[in-house]
Amino acid sequence: MAESEVAGVRLQKVLAAAGVASRRVVEEYILAGRIVVNGRIVTELGTRVDPETDFVSVDGVAVQLDTAKRYYMLNKPTGVVSSMRDEQGRPDLRRFTDDLEERVYNVGRLDAETSGLLVLTNDGELAHVLAHPSFGVEKTYVAKVRGRLTPQTLQQLKQGIELDDGPIKADRAKILQTQGDAKHTIVEITLHSGKNRIVRRMLKAVGHPVVELVRRQFGPLHLGTLRAGQLRELTKDERGRLLTIARSAGSGASAPEGH
Predict the structure, then answer these.
(1) Which pLDDT belongs to residue 7?
(2) How many CA atoms lie within 13 A of 57 on its CB side?
(3) How far apart are CA 253 and CA 124, in angstroms?
(4) Cα–Cα distance, 116 to 227 (Å, whole number)
(5) b/e per residue, 132-150, with b = 16+ CB within 10 A?
(6) FRET label pair with 55: which of 36, 109, 143, 241, CA 20 to 30 Å apart?
């Protein structure tokens, strides 16, 4: 390393502080070639890094080094708009974030009538990657729709339909359940489009208006058992998977933790 970089922190100390493993175990990872810094495998125990500017991954999964960045998962209830301050005075996301020390923002939006997984963060670069459809981050929704949705209609959704703003197709779709003498069907749809109210518009276009809609998955994140209105920080593994997506999206969108 150049003399100007000597002020960096030893890699094993940084990764131990990030919760990856103890310094001794991290040293074993280094010697085994399991750690990559800025795209290059490192095997020198004296390697130093700058936590604010360097990319570090272990076994192909990015590690969050910048502890100023925060990542949360919210199970947004129905009736709440995806905004930090609603000009019309409707219930907004502040009720879930007012007690946080950091100022965070929602990644993308869910309409007021849709519940489910919403990511909140102060990492602008990561938010850009997750929200922009060009990066292909998948979202999975479970919808209760009117009528009996047939396998033929399901295939139509997967092959593609034409809406007013252009063609759209589901990446995956499956019927989970038919309810009440076929008055309603529960269907799961996965897609990466970021278009406004896209799931509702797709299902209405094939003759099955949505009665209830929840987003269960956003990229590698799963809602799990998180109850409506609950907020929690992402785990180390969840953060790693999100950061891996951001960094693999390209150098323009993969600055470390928002820098």
Answers:
(1) 67
(2) 20
(3) 10
(4) 9
(5) eeebebebbbbbbbeeebe
(6) 109
Residue 124 lies in a domain: yes
Query: Residue 78 sits in a domain of what CATH number?
Result: 3.30.70.580
pLDDT value at 6 more than 70 = no
104-148: per-residue pLDDT in tens? Answer: 999 989 999 999 999 999 998 888 888 877 777 899 999 999 999
For residues 218 and 144, what is the distance between their CA atoms, to the nearest angstrom? 19
Model pTM score: 0.85
Residue 243 lies in a domain: no
The catalytic residue positions are 111
| Residue 252 in domain | no
Both 100 and 226 in a single domain?
A: yes
Query: How many CA atoms does the CB half-sphere of 5 hold within 13 Å?
Result: 13
